[in-house]
Specification:
The protein is mainly β and 836 residues long. The protein is built from seven helices and 55 strands.
C-alpha cells in the first residue's frame, strides 16, 4: 500500500514536468512530421528556422490549413514549387501583435482579430503575424469574457510585436460587488456569493482559496467544532448543505476526517454559494447550496502548479491539447508518510480527542502497539472539448480517500488486533451543452456519486470484531433548456431523475449479530423557471417552480422559489427571497462510538416512518448599499425546517437514544460593513440567531437548537500589493448550548437503573469562542513562472476554547464524568506554490 501511495506522490510532482514538453515543439520537428504524413518535402535553410517553436496541431487537417496556422504563429512564409515541394522562408519584414491578459502573465488564444478583409484567430502563443501591413485602418479584437478592443494599424511597427492587453469584462447585471471580503470573492445581485479561486487574494488562516473554509467568513455560517465536515448554516446541520461538484452531489467534504477540505482548491473555477433564494434547478440542501464547477474557459496555453504546506503536497497540470480541447490532471497527497509536522500533530490531537483511538492509552489493560497511520489523498481528471462553436462536451472524475490504521495490544496477553477506518468517495459526471440558436440552448448532464465509510473495530481484550459500513450510490440525469425570449425575459425548463441507494451494515462476531439495511428511492422532477428584468433593469425577478415525485411513496412535493431585487438608486438595492424545499437524505448517529467515534454519522434515506421527508420554508429581506469604497449589507430572515429526526442532531443528553420527529425554526439578522482604501480592506460582520427545536412527544417540547449561536461576529484587515499579501482576522461567537446535570443528585436510580440526571435540554451554554488568525505571503514574479511563499497561523494567541461539553456515566465507579473537547491550538502552516 505504501509503495502505491509513494508512486502516486511522485506522479503528482512529475505531472507538470512530464506534461510541459507536450506544449511546444521545434518547428523543424513539426515540419518533418508533416512531411511523413502528407508526402511532401520542405526546403529551407536550417539556420533560419532552428530557434522557432510552435504549438503542435492536429496533422489530420488539410495541408493548406496546417500551413496557414503556422504562418499566423510564426514569421515564416510558404511558397509552393510544385505539388510536393514547398519552400519555407523566414520573413525579413513582418508586422505582429501579441495579446496578453490584464495580469500580463498570460498570452490569450481564441482571440478573433477582425480586419477589413478577414478574421484571424490566435492560437496558444497569443501572437498573430502579418507578412505585410494589414490593408485596413483598424483591427478589432474579440474574446469571450473580455472587453472588445480596437487598435490602429498605423501604430504597428515593422519587425516588432505590439503588445495588446485585453481586460476582463464583468456582467454588472449579475455581480453587485467585485471584492467581497477579498478579491476573487464576489457578491451577486441575488445575494448569493461567487468564489473565483484563480483571482483569490487572501483570507486570514488560509493557505489556499478553500471554499469550505471561505464559507465560514460569511455571515450566518459557522463550524462550532472547527471541522470542515460540520458546517452549520442558520442553525442547520451539515447534511442540510448541498455540495455539488460539476453537477454531481458530494457526500464527503472532508479530509483528515473533517479537519481539511476534500475539495482541491486549485481545480475549482467557479463556486456559487446560496443561503436562500436559490434556483428551482436545485433541490435538497435545506440550509445552503454550494455549487462547484471546475469547467474553465478555453486555455490560452498549458499551465502547471506545484503546491506544498506542512500537511500535504499537490500538483496540477492544465494541458491545452488544442484550441478546442483541454485536459486537467490534479492530485493531493498527505505528507504524513514522509514527515511528521507540528501542524499535523495539532490536527491529529484535535480530531481524535475523546474518541476510541485516544482512549486506548487510558485503558490500563490496553496500549497502542504501533503509531497511528493516517493518510489521505484526492485525484481529479477532467477533459473538455468543443466540437464546434455551438457544442461543448466534458467529462469529470474525482477520487477522495481517507484511511486510518492502528493496532491495539493486550498488555497482559500481548495479543494484537488491527483496526482500520476508511472513508472514500468516487464521482464521475459528463455534460453536453449545445446552442441551437442565439436564443435557445440545451444542456444534458449525467453523474454517478459513490460514498463509503467502513470501520473494522477489533478488541484485543475479548476478541470481539465489529464491522460497520455506510454506503451511498447516487445516480442522476439532468436535462435543461433555456429560451431567451428577449433581452429582458428568459424562460427555462428542465427534467431531473435521481436514484439513491443507501446501505448500512453492523456485524458483530461475539455474540453473532448481523444487521443489514438497504433502501432505494427514485425521484422524478419537473422544473420551470422565469427570469425578468423590468423598469430599465432596476427590477430583476427570478420565479421558479419544481415538482418532485417520489415513486416509493407515490407522492408529489412542490417547491416554489422567488428571488426579487429592486435598485432604488445606483447605490442602494433591496432584495426579497423565499423558497420551499424538501430533503430525503440525512446523516444520523446511532451510537456516539460508531466508527471509533471519529466519523459517527451515517447517511440514511427517508422512509416516511422513523425518518420523514424534511421540508424547508424560508423568507428573507435584504439590502445592499454600495458607494465608492463603502459596502453595507443587511438582511433579516425566518427559516423553518419540519420533520427532522432527533438522531440527526447529535444530542449527547437525555435525547441521545430517543427517536423523535420534530421541527426547528430560526429567525435572525445578518450585517456586513466593508471599507476599502488604497491597498487596505477592512470589514466587519455580525449575525444574530434565535433557533429553537420543537418535539411534541418530549417535555419540554421547545428548547434551544444544538447549533444555535445567538451572537456571531468576525472582523478582518488585509493589505495587498502585486507581491505582498497580509491578512489578520478575529472570530467570536457565543458558546453552543449544553445540557447541565443536577449537581445535587447527578445520578438517577443509582441502585436499580443508574442514569445521568439531566436538567432541561440545552438550558445552559459553554464559554464563548474567540480566535485570531493570520496569513502572509510574498510572490516572486519571473517572465515564465511565479512563486509564492507564505505562512498561515490558526489561533495566533493560542486561545483555549471549549468547542463541546457533555457528560457520560462511568458504570465501574458509578460516577458522572464531564467531557470537554478543546479547540485547535496555535497552529502554524508554511506553504509555497509555483505556477508556470
Amino acid at each position: 500500500m505504501k509503495d502505491i501511495k509513494l508512486c502516486f506522490y511522485i506522479l503528482v510532482l512529475l505531472i507538470p514536468v512530464l506534461s510541459r514538453a507536450q506544449n511546444q515543439i521545434p518547428l523543424l520537428e513539426y515540419l518533418n512530421r508533416i512531411e511523413n504524413q502528407k508526402s511532401v518535402r520542405f526546403n529551407y535553410i536550417q539556420q533560419e528556422l532552428r530557434t522557432l517553436e510552435i504549438t503542435s496541431f492536429d496533422t489530420s487537417q488539410t495541408l493548406k490549413k496546417i500551413l496557414y496556422q503556422v504562418s499566423i504563429q510564426l514569421p515564416v512564409a510558404f511558397e509552393w514549387v510544385d505539388d510536393t515541394n514547398i519552400v519555407v522562408k523566414r520573413l525579413n519584414q513582418f508586422y505582429c501583435i501579441k495579446i496578453l491578459s490584464e495580469d500580463l502573465n498570460q498570452t490569450l488564444n481564441n482571440v478573433y482579430v477582425e480586419s477589413q478583409d478577414n478574421i484571424i484567430k490566435t492560437y496558444q502563443n497569443g501572437t498573430v503575424f502579418f507578412a505585410g501591413k494589414p490593408n485596413t485602418k483598424t483591427l478589432k479584437l474579440f474574446k469571450e469574457g473580455y472587453a472588445v478592443k480596437e487598435i490602429e494599424v498605423k501604430s504597428l511597427e515593422p519587425n516588432d510585436c505590439k503588445i495588446i492587453i485585453l481586460t476582463r469584462q464583468i456582467n454588472l447585471d449579475e455581480i453587485k460587488l467585485v471584492g467581497y471580503l477579498t478579491k476573487g470573492l464576489n457578491l451577486n445581485s441575488d445575494l448569493s456569493i461567487s468564489l473565483n479561486p484563480k483571482e483569490f487574494e487572501i483570507l486570514a488562516g488560509l493557505t489556499q482559496p478553500d471554499v469550505l473554509q471561505t464559507m465560514q467568513f460569511l455571515p450566518g455560517i459557522v463550524s462550532l467544532d472547527e471541522r470542515i465536515s460540520n458546517i452549520n448554516v442558520r442553525g442547520g446541520t451539515h447534511d442540510q448543505n448541498l455540495f455539488l461538484w460539476n453537477g454531481a452531489r458530494l457526500y464527503q467534504t472532508g479530509h483528515f476526517f473533517g479537519m481539511i477540505s476534500a475539495l482541491n482548491p486549485s481545480i475549482a473555477h467557479q463556486v456559487d454559494i446560496y443561503k436562500n433564494g436559490s434556483s428551482a434547478f436545485y433541490t435538497e440542501g435545506l440550509s445552503s447550496v454550494v455549487d462547484i464547477s471546475s469547467t474553465a474557459k478555453p486555455l490560452d496555453h498549458s499551465e502547471f502548479e506545484i503546491f506544498a504546506n506542512f500537511l500535504e503536497t499537490a500538483g496540477k497540470a492544465d494541458l491545452a491539447l488544442s484550441d478546442q480541447s483541454q485536459l486537467r490532471v490534479a492530485g493531493r497527497y498527505a505528507l504524513s508518510d514522509v514527515i511528521d509536522t507540528p501542524t499535523f500533530d495539532n490536527y491529529f490531537d484535535k480530531i481524535f480527542q475523546n474518541t476510541e483511538v485516544s482512549s486506548i492509552n487510558t485503558n490500563e489493560n490496553l496500549r497502542l502497539s504501533s503509531d497511528v497511520d493516517l493518510q489521505y489523498y484526492d485525484a481529479n481528471l477532467q477533459f473538455q472539448t468543443a466540437f464546434n462553436d455551438n457544442t461543448t462536451w466534458q467529462i469529470n472524475a474525482m477520487a477522495i480517500s481517507n484511511e486510518l490504521l492502528f493496532t491495539e495490544e493486550n498488555i497482559n496477553t500481548q495479543d494484537q488486533k488491527e483496526n482500520n477506518l476508511t472513508q472514500e468517495s468516487y464521482v464521475v459526471s459528463t455534460q453536453l451543452d449545445k446552442n441551437l440558436s442565439e436564443n435557445v440552448s440545451l444542456s444534458s448532464l449525467a453523474y454517478l456519486s459513490y460514498y463509503k465509510l467502513e470501520g473494522q473495530n477489533a478488541s484485543a481484550l475479548n476478541n470481539q470484531l465489529l464491522n460497520q459500513t455506510n454506503e451511498v450510490i447516487d445516480f442522476g440525469v439532468k436535462l435543461r433548456s433555456d429560451f431567451e425570449l428577449s433581452k429582458r425575459y428568459k424562460f427555462s425548463l428542465g427534467y431531473q431523475f435521481n436514484e439513491i441507494g443507501i446501505r448500512n451494515d453492523n456485524i458483530v462476531n461475539i455474540p453473532e449479530v448481523e444487521i443489514r439495511q438497504k433502501s432505494v428511492l427514485q425521484t422524478h422532477a419537473g422544473i420551470a423557471e422565469f427570469k425578468a428584468s423590468n423598469f430599465n433593469h432596476k427590477l430583476k425577478t427570478t420565479l421558479g417552480l419544481r415538482a418532485n415525485y417520489y415513486d416509493k411513496f407515490s407522492e408529489f412535493k412542490f417547491e416554489p422559489h422567488l428571488n426579487m431585487s429592486y435598485a432604488i438608486s445606483p447605490s442602494f438595492d433591496v432584495i426579497l427571497m423565499a423558497e420551499q424545499k424538501h430533503q430525503v437524505t440525512a446523516q444520523v448517529i446511532d451510537l456516539q462510538n460508531d466508527f471509533f467515534g471519529v466519523e459517527k454519522r451515517r447517511w440514511v434515506l427517508a422512509d416516511e416512518n422513523d425518518i420523514p421527508i424534511q421540508r424547508l420554508r424560508q423568507v428573507e429581506i435584504g439590502q445592499v448599499f454600495k458607494k465608492k469604497s463603502w459596502l453595507l449589507t443587511g438582511n433579516v430572515f425566518y427559516k423553518k425546517i419540519e420533520s427532522i429526526t432527533s438522531a440527526s442532531q447529535n444530542f449527547q443528553n437525555q435525547l441521545e437514544f430517543l427517536k423523535l420527529s420534530g421541527d426547528y425554526q430560526t429567525y435572525g439578522a445578518e450585517f456586513l460593513v466593508q471599507k476599502q482604501f488604497q491597498n487596505f480592506r477592512l470589514w466587519l460582520n455580525y449575525t444574530y440567531n434565535d433557533s429553537e427545536y420543537e418535539f411534541d412527544n418530549f417535555s419540554p417540547s421547545v428548547f434551544p437548537n444544538n447549533f444555535e449561536t445567538s451572537h456571531q461576529t468576525e472582523t478582518g484587515l488585509s493589505y495587498t500589493t502585486s507581491k505582498l499579501k497580509l491578512s489578520l482576522s478575529g472570530r467570536f461567537f457565543t458558546g453552543r448550548p449544553t445540557t447541565p446535570i443536577n449537581q445535587n443528585a447527578p445520578i438517577s436510580n443509582p441502585d436499580t437503573n443508574p442514569d445521568i440526571n439531566f436538567l432541561d435540554p440545552n438550558s445552559d451554554n459553554i464559554t464563548e469562542y474567540t480566535q485570531v488568525n493570520f496569513t502572509g505571503s510574498y510572490t516572486f514574479l519571473w517572465p515564465k513562472f511565479k512563486a509564492e511563499i507564505g505562512l498561515a497561523i490558526l489561533n495566533l494567541f493560542n486561545t483555549n476554547n471549549t468547542t463541546n461539553q457533555f457528560f457520560r456515566l462511568n458504570n465501574d465507579i458509578l460516577e458522572v464524568e464531564q467531557i470537554e473537547n478543546q479547540s485547535l491550538e496555535f497552529t502554524p502552516n508554511a506553504f509555497f506554490k509555483i505556477n508556470f
